[in-house]
Design goal:
This protein is of the alpha/beta class and 290 residues long. The protein has helices at 11-22, 38-42, 51-55, 68-75, 81-84, 99-111, 124-130, 141-154, 166-194, 199-206, 214-218, 220-224, 234-250, 256-270, 282-287, and strands spanning 3-7, 26-30, 46-47, 60-63, 90-93, 115-118, 121-122, 133-139, 155-162. The chain has two domains: 3-163, NAD(P)-binding Rossmann-like Domain (Rossmann fold, 3-Layer(aba) Sandwich), CATH 3.40.50; 169-287, N-(1-d-carboxylethyl)-l-norvaline Dehydrogenase, domain 2, CATH 1.10.1040. It holds the Pfam family NAD_binding_2.
């Protein structure tokens, strides 16, 4: 594989493209807002003015967009991926999306002799920049083996979880865990400040014990200084939690902690925090009047 069509140049997508280029792949990209691509174009990415042109001549087409509705719109319909990609092309959706939609895309792709994978990622903006993302893959073994060099350019922990939709189920499981961790760390920090302790001193002391986590190392420092710049948007996390709750209902399992996290983040979004990073959850605990 040499040429990669890439659709979606948000916080994650831009860094993922850079790592693909570092690994020697040529990237031709499309995004709805060309301004987002300016720096990448200067670095050697080829600009495409449509989804169809991003698919033309590509050995693989990678997508990472916002919502399941965005995924659906770029895969199905005239001039979209399933119609435009050439037979034998890998089509890899790395958006966190619906497992059922991933299954539907896979069925339609296979009918057109394409190689579909759902491969959502975790690791945030830091993991995307450093090429250390965890990549959770659903799809066939042959497609996975073909795509492995691409995944290795963008991530470290790469695992095929099963057939179509399995990558999405695995990512939703990850988001369920994150929701609880975020609440725990925000509550810890609010308690620490109310008790008059030095928050950074405490963080450094407990990080090597049972409370240690990626969140404690990477997001709690941002909470302490009230840096809410987005590595992962609250509005996108709300989307993920809604997908997880929807899937949980289909699987007949109750997730009360996730339901609470979703309510707290919804409250923040209602009060203007939707474009902030998930670490802004601490605002609820610090003020509880947001």
């Amino acid at each position: 594989m040499k040429t990669i069509g890439f659709i979606g140049l948000g916080v994650m997508g831009q860094s993922m493209v850079r790592n693909l280029m570092k690994a020697g792949f040529h990237v031709q990209a499309y995004t709805r807002t060309k301004d987002k691509a300016v720096d990448l174009l200067a670095e050697g990415v080829s600009w495409c003015d449509s989804v169809a042109s991003a698919c033309q001549g590509a050995d693989a087409v990678i997508t990472i967009v916002g919502y399941p509705s965005d995924v659906k719109s770029i895969y199905f319909g005239d001039g979209m991926i399933l119609q435009s990609a050439e037979p034998g092309t890998l089509v890899i959706d790395m958006t966190t999306s619906s497992p059922i939609l991933a299954e539907r895309i896979a069925e339609a792709a296979i009918d057109r002799s394409l190689l579909p994978l759902d491969a959502p990622v975790t690791g945030g903006d830091i993991g995307a920049k450093n090429g250390t993302l965890s990549i959770l893959v659903g799809g066939g073994e042959y497609a996975f083996s073909r795509a492995l060099p691409l995944f290795e350019a963008m991530g470290q922990a790469i695992q095929r979880m099963g057939y179509a939709g399995s990558g999405q189920y695995a990512k939703l499981a990850n988001q369920i865990a994150i929701a609880g961790i975020m609440m725990g760390n925000a509550e810890m920090l609010a308690f620490t400040k109310k008790a008059g302790l030095d928050a950074e001193q405490l963080r450094q002391t407990i990080r090597g014990g049972a409370a240690g986590s990626w969140t404690l190392d990477n997001l709690v420092p941002r909470m302490i200084v009230e840096d809410y710049s987005p590595g992962f948007f609250i509005k996108h996390f709300l989307k993920d939690m809604a997908l997880a709750l929807e899937s949980a209902e289909q699987l007949n399992i109750k997730l009360p902690s996730l339901e609470l996290a979703s309510k707290l983040y919804s409250l923040l979004e209602e009060n203007g925090y939707g474009d902030n990073g998930t670490q802004a959850l601490v605002e609820y605990y610090l003020h509880q009047d947001v």
